[in-house]
Amino acid sequence: MGSLYEETPSLLQDLKVTVHSSCLVFPSQETERKSMFLSNIDQVLNFSVETVHFFPSNKDFPPNLVAEKLKHSLEKALVPYDFLAGRLKLNPKTGRLEIDCNAAGAGYVVASSEYTLDEMGDLVYPNQAFSQLVCMSLDTLEPDDRLLCILQFTSFKCGGFAMGFSTNHATFDGLSFKHFLDNLAALAADKPLAVSPCNDRQLLAARSPPLVRFSHPELVKLEIRASQDSNAAVFELTQEDLAFSTFRLTSSDITNLKEEAKSTSGAKANSTRITSFNAITAHIWRCKALSCDTGNNMERLSTILYAVDIRPRLNPPLPSSYSGNAVLTAYATASCKELNEGPFARLVEMVSEGAKRMTDEYARSVIDWGELYKGFPHGEFLVSSWWKLGFTEVEYPWGKPRYSCPIVYHRKDIILLFPDIHEGDGSNSGVNVLVALPDKEMEKFKSLFHKFLA
C-alpha cells in the first residue's frame, strides 16, 4: 500500500508580501455595452474563487518582464472576455443577476515576497497564507465597486513568481477558467486565441414554461432571493476548529480500488463505469460518512454530491468552449450500514449512476427547478475535484506552472481532490485528498481511510 497520511508540514504564516502597484485594466479595444444574461446555474454562484499558479524562475523571463506581459495580455483578453471587465447588477424587472458589460475594468496588482519559491514549502499542502498571493479588492475603489476579476502578480526572491486570480464564480466554472488561462497564455506569446469562448449564456436558459420532471432531492430551496450583494455558497464556512490533513492515493492505490470494485461487482459489472474518479469518490464517501458520530444509528442516510460537466450531455451538446458555468451536481445516497458492510462495487455503482442520471432532460429539469424555486445543491458533503482540470498543463511563454491550486478555507463539508505536484500527463498519477474535520472525526477518517485500503 503506497498511500500516505501527510502530517501537517511546517508552514510559513506570513509570506511577507509587499504590494507595489494596483490599477484597473481595460479592454485593449472598444467593446459593445450590453447586459449579459446569467443562467440559473450562474445565478447562485455569486462568490469569489481564488487560485494561485506558481512558476519557477526563467532567465529569459525576469519577473518585471512577465509582469508587463501579463498586464497587456489581460487587456487583450478583456476583449473576447468582455464580461470580466463588467459588473454584476440586479435587474429590478426580473429580479435576476446580470453582468453589465460596461468595460469598467478588471484589477491588476504587482507585488513581491521576501521569500524564494522553494521557501514556500510544500505547494500541494493548502497553506492559508497563500491567500496573501491573491487580491480580493482594490483599495482605490468604492466599496460597492466589486470587480469580477483581479490578477495579482507576486515575484519571489529567486526570480520565480505566482499568478493569483480572484474571479467571481458566476463568470467561470473550472473548465472555462482553464480555457481562459489557455487564451491568456496564447496572448502572452503573441499568438491567436487557443479557444474562442462561447459567451451565450442563453444556451442554458430555462424553458418556458419551466418543466420539472424529477424530484431533485439533491437541491434545497433558498430562503432568500439572490441579490447583487448575496454571497451565499453551497456550504458555509464553519466556526469549528478543524484539522487539515492530506491523504495521498498513489496510482497503485487507485488501481487497487478499481480492482476491488471489479472483484465485488455482480450482474451490473459491465454497465458500471469503474473509473478512477468513481472509485476514489466511493472510497472517500464511506470514510467521511462513517467518521461522523452516528452512535448506533447505522440506518442514517448519507448523501454525497459531486460535479458533472453537462456540456457533452445536452442535446444538442453545448460548445466545449462555453464560458459560463456548465456543471451540475450529481448525487448518491446510501445508509451508513450499506457504506460499512456493502460490497465496494455497489458504492462505485451508485456514484456512476449519479453521473449517468445527468441526461439532457435531467439537466434541463434542474435548470427549470432553479427558475421556479432558486436554490443550491444539498447533501452531507461535496467532493470537489481539481485533479483533472489541467491548470498545470497551460503552456505560457515562460513555461508551465510548477503547481496550481485554489485557496482553501475551513469547510468540513467539502473534500478536495488535487493532482500531485509531479504529475506528467495526468493519465496514471496519484491524487491528493484534502480533508478538514474536527480532531475526533479526523482520527476516525484516517483510520477508515487506511482500513478500507488494506
UniProtKB/TrEMBL annotation:
Keyword Calcium: no
Pfam family, one: Transferase
Gene3D superfamilies hit by this protein: Chloramphenicol acetyltransferase-like domain
Keywords, sorted A to Z: Transferase
Coiled-coil region(s): none
Record GO terms (molecular function): acyltransferase activity, transferring groups other than amino-acyl groups
Keyword Ribosomal protein in record: no
InterPro entries: CAT-like_dom_sf, Plant_Fungal_Acyltransferase
Domain of life: Eukaryota
Record PANTHER family: ACYLTRANSFERASE GLAUCE, TRICHOTHECENE 3-O-ACETYLTRANSFERASE
Family: Belongs to the plant acyltransferase family.
Protein known as: Omega-hydroxypalmitate O-feruloyl transferase
Species the sequence originates in: Morella rubra
